[in-house]
Amino acid sequence: MRRLLVVALLLGLGACASPLGTLSARDQLLVTCDGLATTMGIVKNYILDGTIDNPATLHDIRNASVIVEESCTSNIDHTTALSRLAGQSVILLEARIMAETETGERS
Protein backbone atom coordinates (compact mmCIF):
# COMPACT_ATOMS: atom_id res chain seq x y z
CA MET A 1 0.00 0.00 0.00
CA ARG A 2 2.78 2.41 0.94
CA ARG A 3 4.63 1.80 -2.33
CA LEU A 4 1.45 2.43 -4.27
CA LEU A 5 0.99 5.69 -2.41
CA VAL A 6 4.55 6.79 -3.16
CA VAL A 7 4.18 5.87 -6.84
CA ALA A 8 0.92 7.83 -7.02
CA LEU A 9 2.59 10.83 -5.39
CA LEU A 10 5.51 10.71 -7.80
CA LEU A 11 3.19 10.46 -10.80
CA GLY A 12 1.15 13.35 -9.45
CA LEU A 13 4.24 15.44 -8.90
CA GLY A 14 5.42 14.63 -12.41
CA ALA A 15 2.08 15.68 -13.86
CA CYS A 16 2.13 18.90 -11.88
CA ALA A 17 5.74 19.60 -12.79
CA SER A 18 5.28 19.53 -16.55
CA PRO A 19 3.67 23.00 -16.81
CA LEU A 20 6.27 24.25 -14.33
CA GLY A 21 8.98 23.19 -16.75
CA THR A 22 8.35 26.32 -18.76
CA LEU A 23 9.16 28.50 -15.75
CA SER A 24 12.66 29.57 -14.79
CA ALA A 25 14.39 27.58 -12.03
CA ARG A 26 13.88 30.54 -9.69
CA ASP A 27 10.13 30.64 -10.34
CA GLN A 28 9.86 26.86 -10.03
CA LEU A 29 11.57 27.14 -6.65
CA LEU A 30 9.15 29.87 -5.52
CA VAL A 31 6.11 27.77 -6.49
CA THR A 32 7.58 24.65 -4.86
CA CYS A 33 8.46 26.45 -1.63
CA ASP A 34 4.99 27.97 -1.44
CA GLY A 35 3.35 24.57 -1.86
CA LEU A 36 5.64 22.95 0.68
CA ALA A 37 5.00 25.74 3.18
CA THR A 38 1.28 24.99 2.91
CA THR A 39 1.88 21.25 3.29
CA MET A 40 4.17 21.80 6.28
CA GLY A 41 1.49 23.92 7.96
CA ILE A 42 -1.10 21.18 7.49
CA VAL A 43 1.33 18.51 8.74
CA LYS A 44 2.15 20.69 11.76
CA ASN A 45 -1.54 20.80 12.67
CA TYR A 46 -1.73 17.00 12.49
CA ILE A 47 1.30 16.78 14.77
CA LEU A 48 -0.21 19.23 17.25
CA ASP A 49 -3.53 17.38 17.43
CA GLY A 50 -1.73 14.04 17.90
CA THR A 51 -2.75 12.44 14.60
CA ILE A 52 0.91 12.13 13.62
CA ASP A 53 2.73 10.78 16.65
CA ASN A 54 5.05 8.02 15.43
CA PRO A 55 8.60 8.92 16.55
CA ALA A 56 10.20 7.73 13.29
CA THR A 57 7.72 9.73 11.22
CA LEU A 58 8.25 12.81 13.38
CA HIS A 59 12.02 12.43 12.95
CA ASP A 60 11.65 12.19 9.15
CA ILE A 61 9.34 15.21 9.09
CA ARG A 62 11.75 17.22 11.23
CA ASN A 63 14.67 16.40 8.93
CA ALA A 64 12.62 17.17 5.82
CA SER A 65 11.48 20.48 7.31
CA VAL A 66 15.07 21.54 7.98
CA ILE A 67 16.08 20.80 4.38
CA VAL A 68 13.01 22.62 3.04
CA GLU A 69 13.78 25.65 5.22
CA GLU A 70 17.42 25.70 4.12
CA SER A 71 16.58 25.20 0.44
CA CYS A 72 13.88 27.86 0.37
CA THR A 73 15.72 30.56 2.31
CA SER A 74 19.40 30.21 1.41
CA ASN A 75 21.20 31.69 -1.56
CA ILE A 76 22.11 28.36 -3.15
CA ASP A 77 21.65 27.64 -6.84
CA HIS A 78 17.94 27.34 -7.68
CA THR A 79 18.37 24.05 -9.53
CA THR A 80 20.31 22.57 -6.60
CA ALA A 81 17.58 23.70 -4.20
CA LEU A 82 14.89 22.11 -6.37
CA SER A 83 16.81 18.83 -6.42
CA ARG A 84 17.11 18.88 -2.63
CA LEU A 85 13.38 19.53 -2.27
CA ALA A 86 12.23 16.63 -4.44
CA GLY A 87 12.76 13.92 -1.82
CA GLN A 88 11.54 16.07 1.03
CA SER A 89 8.22 16.80 -0.67
CA VAL A 90 7.50 13.06 -0.88
CA ILE A 91 8.12 12.66 2.87
CA LEU A 92 5.88 15.60 3.77
CA LEU A 93 3.09 14.70 1.34
CA GLU A 94 3.11 11.08 2.47
CA ALA A 95 2.75 12.16 6.11
CA ARG A 96 -0.09 14.50 5.16
CA ILE A 97 -1.97 11.90 3.12
CA MET A 98 -1.59 9.24 5.80
CA ALA A 99 -2.91 11.65 8.46
CA GLU A 100 -5.83 12.70 6.25
CA THR A 101 -6.67 9.06 5.60
CA GLU A 102 -6.57 8.30 9.32
CA THR A 103 -8.87 11.19 10.19
CA GLY A 104 -11.12 10.83 7.15
CA GLU A 105 -10.41 14.41 6.11
CA ARG A 106 -9.21 15.71 2.78
CA SER A 107 -7.83 19.23 2.46
From TrEMBL:
PROSITE patterns: PROKAR_LIPOPROTEIN (PS51257). Residues 1-17 form the signal peptide. It comes from the Bacteria. It comes from Sneathiella litorea. This is Uncharacterized protein. Keywords: Signal.
